[in-house]
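3.2 Worked example (two chains)
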Amino acid sequence: MQIKKTEVEDSLQNKVDLFFQNKKPNMAEHLGIEFTKLATGEVKGTMPVDSRTHQPFGVLHGGASVAFAETLASVGAWLTCDVSRQTAVGMEINANHVRPVQEGSVTGHAESLHRGSQTQIWQVTIRNNQQKLVCVSRCTLAIVPLNPQT
Protein backbone atom coordinates (compact mmCIF):
# COMPACT_ATOMS: atom_id res chain seq x y z
CA MET A 1 0.00 0.00 0.00
CA GLN A 2 1.64 3.17 -1.15
CA ILE A 3 0.95 6.86 -1.28
CA LYS A 4 2.48 8.07 -4.54
CA LYS A 5 1.36 11.25 -6.25
CA THR A 6 -1.55 11.42 -3.85
CA GLU A 7 -3.87 14.36 -3.49
CA VAL A 8 -4.46 14.87 0.25
CA GLU A 9 -6.99 17.27 1.71
CA ASP A 10 -5.05 19.79 3.82
CA SER A 11 -7.14 19.22 6.95
CA LEU A 12 -6.34 15.47 6.82
CA GLN A 13 -2.57 15.67 6.29
CA ASN A 14 -1.71 14.85 9.93
CA LYS A 15 -4.00 11.79 9.94
CA VAL A 16 -2.62 10.62 6.60
CA ASP A 17 0.95 10.99 7.90
CA LEU A 18 0.01 9.00 11.02
CA PHE A 19 -1.64 6.32 8.90
CA PHE A 20 1.41 5.72 6.74
CA GLN A 21 3.92 6.02 9.59
CA ASN A 22 2.16 3.37 11.69
CA LYS A 23 0.98 0.93 9.03
CA LYS A 24 1.85 -2.73 9.25
CA PRO A 25 2.14 -5.23 6.38
CA ASN A 26 -1.37 -5.87 5.06
CA MET A 27 -3.48 -7.20 2.20
CA ALA A 28 -3.66 -3.85 0.40
CA GLU A 29 0.11 -3.71 0.25
CA HIS A 30 0.28 -7.27 -1.11
CA LEU A 31 -2.29 -6.45 -3.81
CA GLY A 32 -0.37 -3.34 -4.90
CA ILE A 33 -3.09 -0.85 -3.97
CA GLU A 34 -2.01 2.78 -4.18
CA PHE A 35 -4.00 5.78 -2.96
CA THR A 36 -4.37 8.71 -5.34
CA LYS A 37 -6.80 10.91 -3.39
CA LEU A 38 -7.60 11.13 0.32
CA ALA A 39 -10.33 13.58 1.30
CA THR A 40 -13.23 13.81 3.72
CA GLY A 41 -15.94 11.64 2.19
CA GLU A 42 -13.88 10.58 -0.84
CA VAL A 43 -10.98 8.21 -1.47
CA LYS A 44 -9.48 7.17 -4.81
CA GLY A 45 -6.87 4.57 -5.62
CA THR A 46 -5.49 2.14 -8.15
CA MET A 47 -4.83 -1.60 -8.14
CA PRO A 48 -2.86 -3.60 -10.69
CA VAL A 49 -4.48 -6.45 -12.58
CA ASP A 50 -1.73 -9.08 -12.59
CA SER A 51 -0.87 -12.44 -11.05
CA ARG A 52 -1.59 -11.07 -7.54
CA THR A 53 -5.16 -10.18 -8.43
CA HIS A 54 -6.08 -12.77 -11.11
CA GLN A 55 -8.42 -15.67 -10.63
CA PRO A 56 -7.24 -19.02 -12.07
CA PHE A 57 -8.78 -18.14 -15.45
CA GLY A 58 -6.60 -15.07 -16.02
CA VAL A 59 -9.00 -12.24 -15.22
CA LEU A 60 -9.43 -9.95 -12.23
CA HIS A 61 -10.67 -11.97 -9.24
CA GLY A 62 -13.94 -10.71 -7.78
CA GLY A 63 -12.45 -11.10 -4.30
CA ALA A 64 -9.61 -8.76 -5.23
CA SER A 65 -12.17 -6.17 -6.35
CA VAL A 66 -14.00 -6.56 -3.04
CA ALA A 67 -10.75 -6.24 -1.07
CA PHE A 68 -9.93 -3.09 -3.08
CA ALA A 69 -13.39 -1.63 -2.43
CA GLU A 70 -13.29 -2.36 1.30
CA THR A 71 -9.78 -0.92 1.58
CA LEU A 72 -10.84 2.39 0.02
CA ALA A 73 -14.05 2.57 2.08
CA SER A 74 -12.33 1.61 5.34
CA VAL A 75 -9.58 4.19 4.96
CA GLY A 76 -12.16 6.81 4.03
CA ALA A 77 -14.23 6.01 7.12
CA TRP A 78 -11.11 5.97 9.32
CA LEU A 79 -10.19 9.45 8.11
CA THR A 80 -13.46 10.75 9.61
CA CYS A 81 -12.84 9.13 13.02
CA ASP A 82 -11.29 10.57 16.13
CA VAL A 83 -8.28 8.30 15.60
CA SER A 84 -7.16 8.66 19.22
CA ARG A 85 -10.34 6.84 20.28
CA GLN A 86 -11.91 5.10 17.26
CA THR A 87 -11.32 3.04 14.17
CA ALA A 88 -13.46 1.77 11.29
CA VAL A 89 -14.09 -1.91 10.52
CA GLY A 90 -16.15 -3.58 7.82
CA MET A 91 -19.61 -4.90 8.76
CA GLU A 92 -21.04 -5.80 5.36
CA ILE A 93 -20.02 -5.51 1.74
CA ASN A 94 -21.68 -6.39 -1.53
CA ALA A 95 -20.42 -6.14 -5.07
CA ASN A 96 -21.70 -6.46 -8.60
CA HIS A 97 -19.02 -7.49 -11.07
CA VAL A 98 -19.90 -6.00 -14.44
CA ARG A 99 -17.03 -6.87 -16.79
CA PRO A 100 -13.76 -8.80 -16.72
CA VAL A 101 -10.31 -7.22 -16.85
CA GLN A 102 -7.32 -9.26 -18.03
CA GLU A 103 -4.42 -6.85 -17.53
CA GLY A 104 -3.40 -3.32 -16.70
CA SER A 105 -4.93 -1.69 -13.66
CA VAL A 106 -8.25 -0.62 -12.22
CA THR A 107 -9.19 2.65 -10.53
CA GLY A 108 -11.48 2.83 -7.53
CA HIS A 109 -13.54 5.79 -6.36
CA ALA A 110 -15.11 5.55 -2.89
CA GLU A 111 -17.73 8.07 -1.81
CA SER A 112 -19.46 8.39 1.53
CA LEU A 113 -23.24 7.95 1.39
CA HIS A 114 -23.85 8.11 5.17
CA ARG A 115 -21.54 9.11 8.02
CA GLY A 116 -23.11 8.44 11.39
CA SER A 117 -21.50 8.21 14.81
CA GLN A 118 -21.57 4.38 14.82
CA THR A 119 -21.89 3.36 11.17
CA GLN A 120 -20.91 4.64 7.77
CA ILE A 121 -21.98 3.54 4.29
CA TRP A 122 -19.66 3.97 1.32
CA GLN A 123 -20.21 3.32 -2.39
CA VAL A 124 -17.23 2.27 -4.48
CA THR A 125 -17.01 2.17 -8.25
CA ILE A 126 -14.14 0.37 -9.94
CA ARG A 127 -13.28 1.15 -13.56
CA ASN A 128 -10.82 -0.21 -16.11
CA ASN A 129 -8.24 1.79 -18.06
CA GLN A 130 -10.95 2.72 -20.60
CA GLN A 131 -13.11 4.11 -17.73
CA LYS A 132 -15.68 1.34 -18.22
CA LEU A 133 -17.43 0.10 -15.09
CA VAL A 134 -15.90 -3.13 -13.76
CA CYS A 135 -17.51 -3.36 -10.32
CA VAL A 136 -19.82 -1.40 -8.08
CA SER A 137 -19.77 -2.08 -4.35
CA ARG A 138 -21.43 -0.81 -1.21
CA CYS A 139 -19.68 -1.19 2.13
CA THR A 140 -21.11 -0.65 5.62
CA LEU A 141 -18.52 0.09 8.28
CA ALA A 142 -18.78 0.12 12.06
CA ILE A 143 -17.08 2.92 13.97
CA VAL A 144 -15.70 1.19 17.06
CA PRO A 145 -13.58 2.13 20.07
CA LEU A 146 -9.85 1.44 19.79
CA ASN A 147 -9.86 -0.37 23.14
CA PRO A 148 -13.30 -1.96 23.43
CA GLN A 149 -14.37 -3.30 26.79
CA THR A 150 -14.92 -7.06 26.59
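3.2.1 Second chain
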Amino acid sequence: MARIKDRLSIINKDLNIEGILQFKGKMIVEGALQGALQGEQALTVKGSRVCADVKVDEITIGGSFEGNIVAYKRLKISCTGNVTGTLFCNTFIIEAGGILNGEVKQLAPKAVLSSLETKKIGYTPSSQTFTSP
Protein backbone atom coordinates (compact mmCIF):
# COMPACT_ATOMS: atom_id res chain seq x y z
CA MET A 1 0.00 0.00 0.00
CA ALA A 2 1.29 3.49 -0.87
CA ARG A 3 2.36 5.77 1.93
CA ILE A 4 0.43 9.04 2.27
CA LYS A 5 3.37 11.14 1.11
CA ASP A 6 3.61 8.98 -2.05
CA ARG A 7 0.01 9.75 -3.09
CA LEU A 8 -0.29 12.16 -6.01
CA SER A 9 -3.39 13.60 -7.70
CA ILE A 10 -3.28 15.89 -10.73
CA ILE A 11 -5.89 18.17 -12.27
CA ASN A 12 -4.55 18.35 -15.81
CA LYS A 13 -4.34 21.66 -17.68
CA ASP A 14 -7.25 20.66 -19.95
CA LEU A 15 -9.50 19.70 -17.02
CA ASN A 16 -12.10 21.99 -15.41
CA ILE A 17 -13.57 20.76 -12.12
CA GLU A 18 -16.41 22.18 -10.03
CA GLY A 19 -17.22 20.82 -6.57
CA ILE A 20 -15.64 19.69 -3.31
CA LEU A 21 -12.33 17.84 -3.51
CA GLN A 22 -10.86 16.04 -0.52
CA PHE A 23 -7.49 14.37 -0.97
CA LYS A 24 -4.57 12.75 0.80
CA GLY A 25 -0.98 13.25 -0.24
CA LYS A 26 -0.19 15.88 -2.86
CA MET A 27 -2.60 17.57 -5.29
CA ILE A 28 -1.23 19.42 -8.33
CA VAL A 29 -3.61 21.80 -10.10
CA GLU A 30 -2.67 22.63 -13.68
CA GLY A 31 -6.22 23.32 -14.93
CA ALA A 32 -9.25 25.02 -13.40
CA LEU A 33 -10.96 24.31 -10.08
CA GLN A 34 -14.02 25.98 -8.60
CA GLY A 35 -15.46 25.03 -5.22
CA ALA A 36 -13.56 23.70 -2.20
CA LEU A 37 -10.31 21.86 -1.64
CA GLN A 38 -9.29 20.03 1.52
CA GLY A 39 -6.20 17.88 2.04
CA GLU A 40 -2.53 17.74 2.86
CA GLN A 41 -0.27 19.39 0.28
CA ALA A 42 -1.45 21.40 -2.74
CA LEU A 43 0.41 23.03 -5.60
CA THR A 44 -1.09 25.26 -8.28
CA VAL A 45 1.11 25.92 -11.28
CA LYS A 46 1.50 28.83 -13.68
CA GLY A 47 -1.56 29.00 -15.92
CA SER A 48 -3.89 27.30 -13.43
CA ARG A 49 -7.08 28.99 -12.26
CA VAL A 50 -8.60 28.28 -8.83
CA CYS A 51 -11.66 29.87 -7.24
CA ALA A 52 -12.11 27.98 -3.98
CA ASP A 53 -12.08 27.83 -0.22
CA VAL A 54 -9.06 25.77 0.78
CA LYS A 55 -7.99 23.94 3.97
CA VAL A 56 -4.61 22.23 3.67
CA ASP A 57 -1.42 21.62 5.60
CA GLU A 58 0.71 23.29 2.91
CA ILE A 59 0.05 25.10 -0.35
CA THR A 60 2.17 26.73 -3.03
CA ILE A 61 0.35 28.98 -5.49
CA GLY A 62 1.87 29.55 -8.90
CA GLY A 63 -1.28 30.40 -10.86
CA SER A 64 -4.38 32.54 -10.40
CA PHE A 65 -6.20 31.98 -7.10
CA GLU A 66 -9.33 33.58 -5.65
CA GLY A 67 -10.81 32.58 -2.31
CA ASN A 68 -9.90 31.88 1.29
CA ILE A 69 -7.07 29.63 2.40
CA VAL A 70 -6.31 27.99 5.73
CA ALA A 71 -2.79 26.53 5.60
CA TYR A 72 -1.95 24.86 8.90
CA LYS A 73 1.79 24.68 8.21
CA ARG A 74 2.93 26.81 5.26
CA LEU A 75 1.56 29.02 2.48
CA LYS A 76 3.77 30.16 -0.39
CA ILE A 77 2.98 32.43 -3.34
CA SER A 78 5.53 31.80 -6.07
CA CYS A 79 6.83 34.41 -8.52
CA THR A 80 4.03 33.53 -10.99
CA GLY A 81 1.25 33.40 -8.37
CA ASN A 82 -1.62 35.89 -8.24
CA VAL A 83 -3.81 35.58 -5.13
CA THR A 84 -6.99 37.43 -4.15
CA GLY A 85 -8.51 36.54 -0.79
CA THR A 86 -7.94 36.05 2.90
CA LEU A 87 -5.10 33.79 3.97
CA PHE A 88 -4.75 32.13 7.40
CA CYS A 89 -1.39 30.52 8.10
CA ASN A 90 1.57 30.33 10.46
CA THR A 91 4.33 30.50 7.87
CA PHE A 92 3.87 32.80 4.87
CA ILE A 93 6.30 33.15 1.96
CA ILE A 94 5.90 35.36 -1.11
CA GLU A 95 8.53 35.31 -3.83
CA ALA A 96 9.53 38.43 -5.76
CA GLY A 97 6.95 38.90 -8.51
CA GLY A 98 4.17 37.12 -6.62
CA ILE A 99 0.96 39.15 -6.22
CA LEU A 100 -1.34 39.30 -3.18
CA ASN A 101 -4.59 41.27 -3.17
CA GLY A 102 -6.04 40.58 0.24
CA GLU A 103 -4.90 39.96 3.75
CA VAL A 104 -2.81 37.48 5.68
CA LYS A 105 -3.80 36.49 9.21
CA GLN A 106 -1.97 34.34 11.69
CA LEU A 107 -3.79 31.14 12.61
CA ALA A 108 -5.70 31.11 15.88
CA PRO A 109 -4.40 29.19 18.91
CA LYS A 110 -4.89 25.41 18.93
CA ALA A 111 -8.04 25.57 21.08
CA VAL A 112 -9.83 27.63 18.46
CA LEU A 113 -8.42 25.55 15.60
CA SER A 114 -9.70 22.31 17.08
CA SER A 115 -13.24 23.69 17.04
CA LEU A 116 -12.78 24.83 13.44
CA GLU A 117 -11.52 21.36 12.46
CA THR A 118 -14.96 19.90 13.07
CA LYS A 119 -16.56 22.23 10.53
CA LYS A 120 -16.59 20.97 6.95
CA ILE A 121 -15.84 23.11 3.95
CA GLY A 122 -19.02 24.34 2.35
CA TYR A 123 -19.56 24.87 -1.35
CA THR A 124 -22.51 26.26 -3.24
CA PRO A 125 -22.38 25.94 -7.04
CA SER A 126 -22.52 29.26 -8.82
CA SER A 127 -23.29 30.42 -12.30
CA GLN A 128 -19.59 31.19 -12.79
CA THR A 129 -17.96 29.02 -15.41
CA PHE A 130 -14.34 28.46 -16.19
CA THR A 131 -12.67 28.43 -19.53
CA SER A 132 -9.39 26.67 -20.02
CA PRO A 133 -6.50 28.80 -18.83
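3.3 Remarks
Confidence is low (pLDDT under 50) at residues 127-133.
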